[in-house]
Amino acid sequence: MSVPKIRITPQEYLAFERKSEIKHEFYNGEIFAMGVASREHNPVCMNVGSEVSTQLKNKTFEIYMNKMRVFVPATGLYTYPDIVVVCSEPQFQDEEFDTLLNPTLIIEVLSPSTESYDRGKKFANYRSIESLQEYLLIAQDEYHIERYMRRGEFWLLSEARTIEEHMELTSIECVLDMREVYDKINF
Predict the structure, then answer these.
(1) CA–CA separation, 125 vs 103, rounded Å?
(2) Residue 95 and which of 101, 128, 141, 142 are 20 to 30 A apart at CA?
(3) What's the Cα-to-Cα distance from 174 to each of 11, 55, 57, 163, 181, rounded to whole Å?
(4) Which helix (H) or strand (E) holds 120?
């Protein structure tokens, strides 16, 4: 005999999550604990965050690193991207200012346990966010960045695969140099 899954409301999730010491995603009434980042994951995130932050200094963009929850209104997903950039005035779900509604760029550093989700269902959810213009997937085990850029109803893919390349982030007017992204990373 199977045990029925207990479903909770978004309000119950937010009340729980705001008290929790670890982060959880929420989708379709269920809570999912987020895994621990690998040794390579953290420095790649820091390198990218540092590069973006430096290039956006004195501009009106806001950058959030892995602790800013994003809500996808069309699907009900609550999630924590590795890096989020907002071009306009940030919009939040409520007065707690901890759930962002209008990301311009979302960056995910791929992990073996989440890669198929980040490429598939998570990206499908993200595509429904009207403000989202670019989605970046960064490998942690090889030189590889994939950029998906919105063009009307379509998402165009461009890639960088060697240490000599760079990736332009048109939506935020930045350029990521692969040497900087993978600084101190040994494959």
Answers:
(1) 13
(2) 128
(3) 37, 6, 11, 18, 13
(4) none
9 in a structural domain:
no
Task: Tokens for 129, please give them.
Answer: 């966010």
pLDDT at 3: 65
**pTM score > 0.85 for this model?**
yes
**Looking at the domain assignment, is residue 90 inside a domain?**
yes
What does pLDDT average to over the chain? 94
Regarding beta strands 105-109 and 134-138, do their DSSP bridges make them parallel or antiparallel, or are they unpaired? Answer: parallel
* Domain assignment of residue 102, yes or no: yes
For residue 77, pLDDT beyond 90:
yes
Average pLDDT of the segment spanning 121-140: 97
Between the alpha carbon of residue 122 and those of residues 43, 92, 108, 114, 169, the distances in Å are: 23, 20, 10, 10, 20
